[in-house]
Each structure stands twice: as C-alpha cells, then as structure tokens.
Amino acid sequence: MYLKLLKLFLKENFSLKRLLGINFKKSKGKAIALSFALLYALGAYVGTFGYLFFEFGKTLVQINMIELLLMFAFVYASGLVILFTLFRSNGYLFHYKDYEILSPLPIKPRTVLFAKLSVMMIMVYFSVFLFLLPLSFAYFYNAGFNVISFLFYIIGIVVIPLIPTVIFSFISLGITRITSRFRGSKILTTVFLFVIFLGIMYLSFSFNPEVINPFEGQQAFIESFGKIYILIQWFAEAVYQRNIVSLLLLVSVSAVPFFLFFIGIQKMVVVTNQKGLSVRTRRNAKPAKSVTRSTISSLVQKELNKYLNVPIYALNTGLGPIMLLIMGVASLFFKTEIEGILLQTVGLNIPAELLVVIVISFLLSLLYTPAISLSLEGKNFWIIKSLPVSPEKVMFSKMIFNILLGLPVALISLGLLAFTFKISFTGILVVGFYITSFSLVTSALDSIINLYFPKFDYMNETEVVKQSLGALLGIFGNFSFILIGGAIVYLLFDVLSWQFLILIASGVNFLLFFVFIYVVQKIASALFRKMSA
Amino acid sequence: MLKIMNFSKSYDGKKKACDNINLEIEAGDIYGFIGHNGAGKTTLLKSIAGIIDFEDGVIQVGNYSIQKDPLEVKKIIAYIPDNPDIYQSLTGIQYLDFIADVFEVDENTRQIRIEKYAKMFEMEDVLSNPISSYSHGMKQKTVIMSALIHEPKVFLLDEPFVGLDPKASHLLKEVFKEMCSKGTAIFFSTHVLEVVEKLCNKVAIIKQGKIVASGNTDKIIKDQSLEEIFLEITNEA
C-alpha cells in the first residue's frame, strides 16, 4: 500500500504537467521554450555559483582549508531544508488537502504519513542535490576525487536534512497554530515567515566588504557556526578525513531524532488534519461594510487581498521591495559598507548613479507578480471569465498592482540612496525615469508571459509561485532588461555621458512597454478564450 | 432572450461533448436542463457564459452573440457554477462588492440588495468573515447573492441546489419565481427531477451531447412522471 500511495503522491506532485503546467505532447512549442528556459536557468546558476565556488575552492586549497567547502555544503543544505520545511511541511504533513479523500479509506494513518513524509523528503533531496551541484564539483575538483570521500559525502547529504526537517516542521506548525487564532492569520503568517526568511538571508549573506568573492565573506560565520553545531564538524571530518566514526556519529545523531519524529507525530498528524487550522466562522455582530470602487480599482484591490493572504506569494515576490526599503534605510547608517558592497559586487570606476540603477533594477526584477497572478486565479478563473470585464482590463489590473507594489518603494529607496551618495537633483530625475520605465516594462512583459504560460491546475500556490514556467520566465525575463541597459551603457560609455545613456535605456524600456501593451490588447481576449481552468 | 443555434463543442476534436444543440429560452421561462453525468450540461452552460470557447453554432443572448460581443452578453447574464469556488482571500462582503463594482451597481442599490438577500439567506452575520471560513452551503449562498446583485436578464445555474439546506433551496425557488415574474429567463441544470416537474415551465433532456427532448414540461410529461420519461428516453439505444 505504501508504494501505491507513494506512486500516487509522486504523480500528483511531480508530473511534468503538474510541475510546469503544460502538456508536452500537446504543446511542442511550449516544450521547446521551456527546455531553453530551463537550460538558461541551469546554465546561469551553475555558471555563476560554479565559478565562484571553484575560485573559492582554489583559495582554500592554497591555505589548506578545503574542508571549509564541506561546511558550506552543510549550511546551505540546511538553509534550503529550513526554507522548504517552513513553507511546505504544513501542507505535506499537518494539513494535507486530500485528507478527506484518504481518511475514509482502509489505510493505516502511519502508512499515509510515511508516504507523505517520503514525498516531502524526495522534494527536499532533489532540491538539495541540485543546489549543491556546483559546490560539490568545486570541492571534489580542488580536494581531489576519492570514492570513499564521495560515498561519505552522499551519505552525509542524505542525513543533513533530517534534523532541520524535524525542528522546522514543528516551528511551521507552531506559527500556523499561533496565527490561526487571530483574524488576519494569513497576513501574520506571512510576516512571521518574512522575519525568519530575512534572518536567514542576513546570516547567509553577511558579506565582508574587505573581500571580492562573497563566499569569503561568509567564511567567518560558517567557521564559527561549525564550532557550535558539532554535526558540521562530523560531516567535514567524515568526508575530508574519511573518518568513519564521524560519519556514524553524524548518521545516528541525525537519524534517531528523525525516526522519533516519525513515530511521535503519527497521532498529531491525525489530530491536526481532523481539526484543521482554518479560521472558524465567527458570528460577527457588526454589520458588513460595503465599499464602492471603480472596476479597475476593485480588480487591483482583489489582487492585494490575494497577495496578503498567500504567504508564499508575498514572501517570494515581496523580497525585492523589502530589500529595496532595507537598503535605502540602511544606506543612511552604513554608507561606507554599502558603498564597498556595491563597488565590489558590481564593479569599480562606475558612477554611483549607475550602481544605484543596477541594484534597484535587480531588486525590482525579483518582483514578478504579473507572471503568475493569472495562474493564481486557479479554480476561481471562472469568475473572471464570466464577468463583463475585458481580459485586457484584467491584465492591466495585474500590471498596475505590480507597479504599485514596486515602484513607490523603489523611488523612496532612490531618494534615500541619493541622499546618502549625494546624487544631484538631475541625477535623481534621470535615475527615477529609468526605474519607472523598468517597472512598467517588466510588469507588461510578465503579463504576456502569464498569458502564454498559465498554470491553473495546482494543489497549492507554491507550485505556481516557485515552480511554474511563468515564474521562471518572469524573473529571467526581467533580468534581460538589466542586460539590455547594461549593453547600451557598455557599448556607448566612452561616447556619451551616463545621464544620456540612462535616458536612452529608459527610452528603449518605454518603447518596449508600449509594444507589450499593444501585444496584450491584441492577444488577451483570444488567449482567455482558449484557457480553461 | 437566449437562443442556442446548431451549437457543437468538442474537447478533443473527435468526440462531441455537445452535438448540434438548438434551444430557445424566452423571457420569463424557468427552463430545466437534465441529463446523465457527462451528458454535456455543464459544457453548454459554460459556453453560454463565455467560459469555454466552441467551434460550431451561435449562442445569442438578447441581441448579442457570446462570440462576437462577449462583454455585452456578460453584462446581462449571471452564471453560477456547479462548485462554488470563489476567492478565499476575500470576505463575503468584499466578494459581493467586487461583483457589484464590476457590474457598476450603484452604492444605494447594492446596499438594498445585499441587505435583502443577506437577510433572506441568513448570511448577515457572516458577511464580514473570510470566505475561507465558509461551509459549502454558505459559499453557494454567496455565489447566488452575487448573481442576484445586478438583476440579470438571463440566469444560468449549474446544479444550484447542491449543498443548500432545505430552507435555502426553498428560498432559491421563490427567488426564481420572483425573477421569472420580472421577465428574467432562468436556465438551470439539475438532477432533482421533482424540482423541474414542479418549478419549470420548460425542460430539455440531453443525452450524449444531443438534445433528445425539449419543450413545455406538461407536454413532455403528459400523464407520466418526469422520472419515468427521463429513464425511458435515456435508456433508449
């Protein structure tokens, strides 16, 4: 029965149609586009991280500290597991959507839980192994390949996720339990997760401005963390020194709590699934207050409600605006440090205005709501389709929401950065003009992406927000405008002033924005007709 | 009010979910639509509402074609699906406001109608709660209220009585009668044959995508029950 369930859950969760929202047999064009997009994303990831880790590995070999890369692998794998568990363990274990289907069946709850846990761990392992690919290569290339080391490494990577899974499953459940008692439970959950996420980001990217390679900046943190968390040392010793005692310690100390976790939560899973954590209907004595709006603002308001009520949506796409705000405010207090980071990560001898443009554009690129918000209509898509609202208007409302979410924050951040770096008034206007054009053009492009690549068939929003083709193309599509601007500046930097170059790049963005708007007007109705949710 | 002419729809290009359907629903009609599961009822209703596209035929609501003037058609219809999947992130009142905004129902009118139907369906106390906290029946009532808020000329419903408590079912039937007296055309699918027998002046029976009987309910039934007629027709080879 376990295997049957596992097969069913895997098919439900990981079939290509479910993961990417397209049928490969029926949509060959989309399949080709997807293959290119995946190759591009994989190439960009492996290329960037692979290069950085490879160079970092070379430095570590010189100072005889290559085992530090193993500690990096441990910490990164754990971080990834923490994020995954925080967001997904609730849906996989404590409140799974098919509970009502499975519970009346003559299957032992333990078997169902084991199958659910297995599927969750398969997803964890897939992500961890893929994420660690460049790091693993950098380690074994620089340290020298050894079969036993490699075997110990694989075993280590298999057991590393176990303890974080146990701890953060409970934390995730705890957060949901606490927030479900309040009225705005979803928003509170979003805030909680944001705080944890930013905390992890802060620890992971605590750059040291003295060094060029960002991983070198994390060295001190990882080393000190390794001294506290003994499992990191066991992992490093097991692989680097091929120490079987350390490996056995690592395996047993990780596996035992996980086994106890599996045994211990069996009853709890039944109870949490039975009770559910949805807000109970409260009889409210106050009469409901009606508010009249125009159609477009009502559509935008609907987008906002959706945004605030889906934590994974707000968390993933809200990172850019939050970071923009944090960076702007932080610049007032840490001018030298931020200047150092900007110069070392972006480049030397570039005017402060251009650095600001690059950083703000990059963070705005992380905001891709129009690339997924149509997909997020999901089972509610019938409402939009049956209402007398033109598809163009629906898409425009999604663009407007994205612009409102990013542009004001970006402009505030620009104001703060301009104050810190003493950018002239003309400079602020020029950069502000570019940022506006960037926000508009990325919003319009993302809308087109979602029109062509909708994904209505999903079990939870994470599949759309993080795993859909729309999300992937949205982020990388947004990056492409930074490349376009960069190419203009690079080619003409010696010929024209930076202000003029930014204006040209803005002009290109505006031109493309109007082209995209025209495209949306032309295609939206026809594509809406073909879509069925 | 609603004319369906030579309508056909296929999902895979081979088998027809609806095959050459011709129906006319006039103002004031309460038209029942019955058939086996998978016979094509939902396909036809979704096509009228402009939710799915179709290849052959014409669907005309008032003077407008759903293919040529979808927005004009949608302004005068209301559609209720078989499953009340509505925005979980909104409260009941926010959802009703959203629909009223889209149909540009003015503040006073919407206030009066929301109060009327909220009281009727006993939803006044829960309208400010999130839809995610509603039961199936409460969601169904919310969808029904949202459909009534703009007083549609054509009311399309896909199995509207599923999930409603007996009182709400009774009230919905009363609403049907009231709307019918004002000239609204009501076209709904159902498996509850007694409702059709007692409530509908016209009925259509669909079998494997084809209309096998349609017209005045009393003429179709004659001296038998609708159940007998339905079984007789649908069991025929």
Topology diagram in text:
The complex is a heterodimer of chains A (533) and B (237).
Chain A (H helix, E strand, L loop, with lengths): L1 H13 L1 H5 L7 H35 L5 H27 L4 H4 L6 H35 L3 H13 L2 H18 L5 H20 L9 H15 L1 H11 L3 H32 L19 H15 L1 H23 L1 H12 L5 H14 L15 H6 L4 H30 L4 H28 L9 H4 L3 H24 L5 H33 L3
Chain B lengths: L1 E9 L5 E10 L4 E6 L5 H8 L7 E6 L2 E2 L4 H7 E4 L11 H11 L4 H14 L15 H13 L5 E5 L7 H16 L3 E5 L3 H7 L2 E6 L2 E7 H5 L4 H10 L2
Parallel strand pairs in B: 3-8, 3-9, 6-7, 7-8
Antiparallel strand pairs in B: 1-2, 1-4, 4-5, 9-10
Helix pairs in contact in B: 3-5
How would you sum up this structure, described in words?
- The complex is a heterodimer of chains A (about 525) and B (about 240).
- Chain A is an all-alpha fold and about 525 residues long.
- Chain A has two domains: about 1-275, no CATH class; about 295-530, no CATH class.
- Chain A contains 22 helices and no strands.
- Chain A is globular.
- The two termini of chain A are about 30 Å apart.
- Chain B has about 240 residues and is α/β, with parallel strands linked by helices.
- Chain B has nine helices and ten strands.
- Classes of the chains: A mainly alpha (about 525), B alpha/beta (about 240).
- At the A-B interface, helix 13, helix 17 and helix 22 of A face helix 2, helix 3 and helix 4 of B.
Query: What is the first-to-last residue Cα distance of chain A?
Result: 32 Å
CATH homologous superfamily descriptor of chain B = P-loop containing nucleotide triphosphate hydrolases
Report on the biggest sheet of chain B.
Answer: 6 strands, mixed
Low-confidence stretches of chain B: none
SSE order of chain A, one letter for each helix or strand: HHHHHHHHHHHHHHHHHHHHHH
Can you count the helices of chain B? 9
Number of domains of chain A: 2
> Into which percentage range does the β-strand content of chain A fall?
under 5%
- Neighbour order of strands in the largest sheet of chain B: 6-7-8-3-9-10
How many beta strands in the DSSP annotation of chain A?
A: 0
**What shape does the CA trace of chain B take?**
globular
Biggest sheet architecture of chain A: none
What level of helicity do the residues of chain A show?
Answer: over 70%
Structural class of chain B: alpha/beta
**Mean of residue pLDDT of chain B?**
90
Strand proportion of chain B: 25-35%
Q: Please name the two chains that share the biggest interface, counting residues whose Cβ lies under 8 Å from a Cβ on the partner chain.
A: A-B, 43 and 52 residues
CATH class of chain B: Alpha Beta
Give the termini separation of chain B: 33 Å
C-alpha Rg of chain A (nearest Å): 25 Å
